[in-house]
Design brief:
- There is one protein chain.
- The protein contains 3 helices and 3 strands; from the N terminus they run βααββα.
């Protein structure tokens, strides 16, 4: 079973560490006050945990989203994966790269 998810744009993380400082300061303010799309680290983490542990997310092979932001009553919804995400050749290559990065082969596990 696998899923992907978009917990929201978490503006106050190291994700934007290479962006100009002014952008790093303005983005959270802009999301909170203009677009209302702000998502806190805690809230994004709760969404990740929900996809991992909640039986309502047991559908495999979908992308979960809540739309943008932390809006009251936002409901998660499943979206079909793109053709690139469903490409078996790409999936195999991604597995190989991931396994090498975490040294699964070095641990004697076959991939």
């Amino acid at each position: 079973m696998f899923n992907t998810l978009y917990p929201g744009c978490v503006a106050e993380t190291a994700l934007f560490r290479d962006a100009p400082k002014l952008f790093q300061q303005a983005l959270p303010w802009f999301q909170k006050n203009i677009t209302k799309d702000y998502v806190s680290q805690l809230f994004a983490g709760e969404r990740v945990a929900q996809v991992v542990a909640d039986p309502n997310f047991a559908q495999s092979g979908v992308h979960w989203s809540w739309g943008n932001g932390q809006r009251e009553g936002a409901k998660p919804f499943a979206q079909a994966l793109s053709t690139k995400a469903n490409n078996i050749s790409r999936a195999g290559r991604l597995w190989e790269l991931s396994a090498a990065m975490v040294a699964l082969e070095a641990a004697g596990k076959s991939v």
